Structure to design on (581 residues):
């Protein structure tokens, strides 16, 4: 146990120190992307690990990114306020979609389909309101007037962004761990197996599912807003829509749904894959990553359902170690 | 403590429970018997909130609970088991019961939930080891777990849907003794559903017989066991076997 804490401490210290000794901007850029997407995938897996497979998270991410950017550009609202507002908007959207699903017991494949529609609808809304959002051409937050970078949450410095992304990523892991150790995990595991039996144990099934969905949606919206602030350019393809949702599912499953660092491993793989394809094949390979995702997803679900990290950790456990460590 | 008036449940054109009324007094064990499809489980599902009655009222401790959400009913002091055990395989035995101890008693504190789980596990005779897996349990063990989950919710009234089929005679007797012990030691009122008559008759204070969704008899086990209507509808009309079964039921009831 102490060894574990020490390992985490040393790892985190190394990650914090990294940008001060290693300054290659391209590599830092890749790391920032990995951290932001890791946070998004972690957000997805917080509910996904309990069988609540959502293909609507692209929608939450899009709301996070676009609401923040629109408030800034049109109403001069600082992202410091805009981000919480966008998270609340995504949270309301999540409740509006999820409540009827949970109340009327839309589960399994049907739940996936409803959330798929959510992704599609958010994408359509962004495209249809192109006068405001730039439609499929994308959207750029206005540059802050000089000196107000902090207010506008805009930094040219990669190191600053790296540290912000790192902090948010750690927050994501802490949320994951908090859920993992709470009674909510018991309740959600029970619900994912048998809703009636969970209710007979006194669990308010609808409320528990809503709670976990809300946490997941709020985190995802935060990821979208941060991505927007970092990249200073968003388009429906990069922060919303079905492709983004599928990418979350893919990364979480490939990395490992049931371990806290699984989604992070998934992010490392997806982003490196996208970069390799982009550099190696350029524009000829547009869309190839999706093809590879799809193929790998099928292979993983059949052969490695616990994901890469989950399977590796299983192997490493030479002696059967109790799961609920106290 | 429980007063059921004119309870009706229809599924489309099919009436599963037709105008059933009964009372359960504090501290008694009421047996609920009847052939398959007689409406026993439907009544249980209405009492525990899994089904909403088509008509009728269910008063528990003076409050109407008909149609309330299951978790509210559980939290108001009714615990239930399922006929076929429904454990959560992704949780350990202890976590299964601690879950019920936490959510079934108004989500007070984790340590209270753990205490409730330990008490319940000890009561039914399962190990309180925190890491034991559900998958190691046999049929009798799963029934005990089901009971421990229900007990951990801190019920005043326990709805025990005990199908003892699948257990051998010794295990059946143990299960019956367990229910009596729960009533005697914890003061929990029990409604016990079963379709094997003999073992039930030995333990219950009163028995109620259902057939095709209607109550056809109610009273002391010895009286009900010799009620010709009960013998006819419950044990069948095949004279020889029904006579033998009735005799067996009377013998076990100690008449």
């Amino acid at each position: 146990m102490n060894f574990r804490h020490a390992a985490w401490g040393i790892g985190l210290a190394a990650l914090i120190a990294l940008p001060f000794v290693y300054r290659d901007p391209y590599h830092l850029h890749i790391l920032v992307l990995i951290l932001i997407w890791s946070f998004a995938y972690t957000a997805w897996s917080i509910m996904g690990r309990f069988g609540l497979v959502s293909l609507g998270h692209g929608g939450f991410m899009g709301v996070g990114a676009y609401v923040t950017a629109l408030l800034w550009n049109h109403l001069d609202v600082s992202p410091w306020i805009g981000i919480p507002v966008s998270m609340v908007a995504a949270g309301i959207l999540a409740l509006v979609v999820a409540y009827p699903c949970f109340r009327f017991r839309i589960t399994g494949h049907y739940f996936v389909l409803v959330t798929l529609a959510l992704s599609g609808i958010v994408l359509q809304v962004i495209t249809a309101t192109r006068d405001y959002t730039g439609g499929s051409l994308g959207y750029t937050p206005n540059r802050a007037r000089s000196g107000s970078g902090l207010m506008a949450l805009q930094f040219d410095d990669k190191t600053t962004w790296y540290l912000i992304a790192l902090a948010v990523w750690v927050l994501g892991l802490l949320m994951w761990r908090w859920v993992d150790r709470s009674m909510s995990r018991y309740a959600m595991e029970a619900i994912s197996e048998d809703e009636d039996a969970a209710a007979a144990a006194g669990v308010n099934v609808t409320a528990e599912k809503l709670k976990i969905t809300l946490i997941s949606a709020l985190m995802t919206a935060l990821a979208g807003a941060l991505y927007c602030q970092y990249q200073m350019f968003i388009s429906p393809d990069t922060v919303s829509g079905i492709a983004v949702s599928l990418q979350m599912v893919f990364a979480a499953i490939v990395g490992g749904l049931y371990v806290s660092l699984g989604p992070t491993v998934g992010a490392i793989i997806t982003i490196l894959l996208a970069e390799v394809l982009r550099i190696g094949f350029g524009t000829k390979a547009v869309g190839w990553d999706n093809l590879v995702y799809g193929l790998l997803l099928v292979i993983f679900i059949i052969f490695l359902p616990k994901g890469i990290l989950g399977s590796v950790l299983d192997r490493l456990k030479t002696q059967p170690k109790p799961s609920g460590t106290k | 403590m429980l007063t059921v008036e004119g309870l009706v449940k229809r599924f489309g054109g099919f009436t599963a429970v037709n105008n059933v009324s009964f009372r359960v007094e504090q501290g008694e064990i009421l047996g609920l018997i009847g052939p398959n499809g007689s409406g026993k489980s439907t009544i249980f599902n209405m009492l525990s909130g899994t089904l909403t009655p088509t008509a009728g009222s269910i008063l528990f401790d003076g409050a109407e609970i008909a149609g309330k959400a299951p978790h509210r009913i559980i939290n108001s002091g009714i615990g239930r088991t399922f006929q076929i055990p429904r454990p959560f395989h992704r949780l350990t035995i202890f976590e299964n019961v601690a879950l019920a101890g936490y959510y079934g008693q108004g989500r007070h504190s984790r340590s209270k939930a753990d205490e409730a789980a330990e008490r319940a596990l000890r009561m039914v005779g399962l190990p309180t080891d925190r890491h034991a897996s559900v998958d190691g349990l046999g049929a009798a063990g799963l029934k005990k777990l089901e009971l421990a989950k229900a007990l951990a919710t801190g019920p005043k009234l326990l709805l025990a849907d005990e199908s003892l089929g699948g257990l051998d005679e010794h295990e059946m007797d143990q299960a019956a003794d367990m229910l009596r012990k729960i009533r005697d030691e914890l003061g929990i009122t029990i409604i016990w559903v079963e379709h094997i008559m003999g073992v039930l008759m030995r333990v219950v204070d009163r028995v109620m017989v259902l057939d095709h969704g209607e109550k056809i008899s109610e009273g002391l086990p010895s009286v009900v066991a010799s009620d010709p209507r009960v013998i006819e509808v419950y044990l069948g009309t095949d004279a020889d076997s029904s006579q033998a079964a009735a005799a067996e039921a009377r013998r076990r009831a100690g008449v």
Summary: The first helix of chain B runs from residue 40 to 47. The mean pLDDT of chain B is 88.
